[in-house]
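job 3f2a | input accepted
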Amino acid sequence: MAYDSVDACDQLVRRKRFDEGAHDRSVARTKGGQEGETHSDTIREGRGNNTALDCAAMNDSQRMIGANGGDPEVVATLGIGQRHVVARVIKWSLLVVAVVGLILGGVLLYRRSQTRGLPTYRTQPVVRSDIQVTISATGTVTALSTVEVGAEVSGKVVKVNVDYNDRVKKGDVLAEIDPEQLKAAVDEATARVRQSEAEIRQAKATLAEAKQNLVRAEAQLAQGLISQKDVEAARAAAARAEASLSSAMASATVSQATLKSAKNKLDKSVIVSPIDGIVLARLVEPGQTVTAGFQTPLLFKLAEDLRRMRLTVYVDEADIGRAKEGQEASFTVDAFPDRVFPSRVLSLRNEPKTDQNVVSYEAVLAVDNSELLLRPGMTATATIISDTRKDVLAVPNAALRFVPPAARKLSIGMSGRPRETTEKSAQKKGARVWVLDGLNPVEVPVKTGASDGTLTEIVKGELAVGMEVVVDAVEKK
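job 3f2a | predicted structure (477 res):
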């Protein structure tokens, strides 16, 4: 008789012994007395020996299987199944898995205990990149030349010939003011000129008569016909006649000037364009009365060709030292947020502008508006390129600002006052970055160069492309 496993054999032995014990007790009760008990013991001993023989046979078979490496032919010959082999493999596999799990769990618990309380560091790589040093400023887009056209004479506007956005040429009539009073002033001035001319002729005649009388009086004085007093009176009359002529000529000059002014005012009753351009604003309507006094009333605002414009920005005094004429620039406007317009620095003004104790300087940038997308008055944000570095070693700016949490803590002196932080002390020593050595950050002194606000050039330092530098730390609570 053969069995699949030792455990099955043991179970069978226990079951048979139980059944045999029950049977023997039944036989003993039937036969009674000592004879029955002796008979049952004999039976149990024989059956137990048979069961032991069967188990021994099975064990011998298993040893043969192990000696033959689990040969299927041996198993088939002995009549033993493979279920006991599978069971033993599963049993040992589970045991190995449990042991490995315990080992891994112990390692994780150990590492967690070692890193408990340490911050988590966030890193970024060292890269090679192009760096552009820029200056940012805001300003307003304006026309290259803007002219405000006003009225130099008073009167009622009788005609307006242009409207918003109309294109005009130099000399085109924009509006007309009622010329009636101005024409009357011209006529009056003309009459005064003519009167002055007549007075001049009269004064000339009077002077000629006075001179003749003087010549005659001097001749009669020589003949003794008149007295010296009469000669002196003739001389005075001649002088008065000469003065009258001069006065008449001066009055004529004034009259001519008055006439010229009246004609000029009459001409200015017609408002004409002083430039070739476009009408930005029309501030007058037909029938409106304008009064020219100490302040000229504004009627129109004209701009030259809007295809060429300029951008006026204000550069902070901290950046003006890096700005130079001719530098490349670009700008954006809110109307076209996805569009970058090229530009160039034309001029840097020396006159400062102070606003709330902030000093800035005016810079003028050229604007090519060939597409006529830009309009005067638009607010623009300009970026002036003051320096460019090609293919340099660079780190994020956050890496230069980073200081480990332990170094940021204040140390308290004997006086009870907080001393200078290690961060400020590190800044005095020079720029540095931090790299991870295992779980701890290690500082690396560096020498920095240009910066674009995001990346900073590394001129000197033990860094290489791809190295991870610490940019932030999150402390565990």
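job 3f2a | Residues 335 and 378 are 8 Å apart (CA to CA).
job 3f2a | closed
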